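2024-03-11 09:14:02 INFO worker-7 job=invfold-0412 stage=load source=structure_tokens
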């Protein structure tokens, strides 16, 4: 298949609009029309990973951390990033990254940590905001089901674990076609009244184009009347971090040992033990320092994350234990999300995990 077939799937499955403003997720290197047959999945793009992709004849590297974060003014091989980029271009290997957009997915980085710890009742810790829209449109009664289904099939109407969510009311619409019209019903130049259904539903903003296209394609009117509203509602499932429960309470030291074995974490840094047993576990893959207060507010007994700064260890007081298991360790299972997404949708595409441990941090 072409690179653009793969990247357009990934761009919508892990919406680019979910990424943080500072981020640079998406296609980093590669021509959209390039043919691709195999991918190498990795947390980081290092020179060793690139060499592995070359030796295994992979056409694309798909990573969690983007190789390019900031604007490049030259490509002369002076920096580590430039050196890798030049080599990737020369070897015709594409690079794609899914970063903070993968973090906030309802099956994303922190959820994967929860899965590995076998947590139950997992919910989002800091919900995504300002990503929801409401669509209201007016459909002639005898076309209602067709238009409704087309809008649902384009991805509208999802609220948490429910889909096809909508509300509809019957009423009367009016219109009068001008000289250059060809009205679906009634006559041009004559005021017409039509029994219509007012149909309203919700959608994520990244689906707007697809949903509006589906509306236009399925609706019988020449000019389709619709309204799009920005909603202030928080997302139910998507957002940074998550919180869930262990099947039974365990002692803090036992939990730290569990983290050590599940995440192969060799250097866990943790705050003062609270003396309480642990049931509620908050998680954030990668640098979760900004979420310490959210974890405390959510009633977590422990917050498992990475890159916690000295002063942040004080923030939980003695209400909650903080465990910093390391950035790489907290995110290393994220590659499974990318792998599973691709093989599920492209069963004949060859996908493999990198065998390189890219963790730049060593422990004594
Ligand atoms: Zn990270």
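2024-03-11 09:14:09 INFO worker-7 stage=emit residues=364
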């Amino acid at each position: 298949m072409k690179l653009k077939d793969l990247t357009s799937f990934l761009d919508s499955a892990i919406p680019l609009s979910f990424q943080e403003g500072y981020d640079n997720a998406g296609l980093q290197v590669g021509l959209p029309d390039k043919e691709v047959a195999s991918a190498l999945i990795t947390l980081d793009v290092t020179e060793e990973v690139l060499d592995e992709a070359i030796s295994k004849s992979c056409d694309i590297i798909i990573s969690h951390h983007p190789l390019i974060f900031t604007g490049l003014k030259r490509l002369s091989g002076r920096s580590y990033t430039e050196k890798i980029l030049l080599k990737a271009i020369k070897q015709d290997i594409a690079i794609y990254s899914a970063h903070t957009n993968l973090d906030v997915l309802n099956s994303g980085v922190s959820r994967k940590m929860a899965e590995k710890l076998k947590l139950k009742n997992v919910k989002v810790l800091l919900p995504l905001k300002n990503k929801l829209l409401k669509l209201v449109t007016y459909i002639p009664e005898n076309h209602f089901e067709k238009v409704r289904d087309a809008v649902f099939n384009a991805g509208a109407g999802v609220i948490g674990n429910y889909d096809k969510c909508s509300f509809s009311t019957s009423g009367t619409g009016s219109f009068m076609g001008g000289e250059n019209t060809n009205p679906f019903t009634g006559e041009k130049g004559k005021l017409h009244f039509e029994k219509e259904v007012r149909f309203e539903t919700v959608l994520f903003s990244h689906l707007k184009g697809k949903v509006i296209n589906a509306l236009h394609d399925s609706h019988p009117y020449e000019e389709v009347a619709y309204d799009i509203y920005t909603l202030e509602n928080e997302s139910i499932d998507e957002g940074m971090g998550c919180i869930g429960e262990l099947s039974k309470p365990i002692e803090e030291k036992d939990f730290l040992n569990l983290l050590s074995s599940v995440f192969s974490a060799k250097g866990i840094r943790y705050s003062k033990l609270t003396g309480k047993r642990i049931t509620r576990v908050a998680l954030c893959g990668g640098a979760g320092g900004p979420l310490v207060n959210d974890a405390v507010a959510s009633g977590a007994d422990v917050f498992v994350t990475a890159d916690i700064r000295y002063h942040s260890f004080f923030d939980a007081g003695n209400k909650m234990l903080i465990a910093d298991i390391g950035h790489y360790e907290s995110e290393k299972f994220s590659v499974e999300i990318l792998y599973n997404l691709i093989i599920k949708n492209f069963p004949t595409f060859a996908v493999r995990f990198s065998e390189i441990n890219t963790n730049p941090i060593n422990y004594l």
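2024-03-11 09:14:09 INFO worker-7 stage=report msg="The domain at 3-98+333-353 is CATH 3.40.1390.30 (Udp-n-acetylmuramoylalanyl-d-glutamate--2,6- Diaminopimelate Ligase; Chain: A, domain 1)."
2024-03-11 09:14:10 INFO worker-7 job finished
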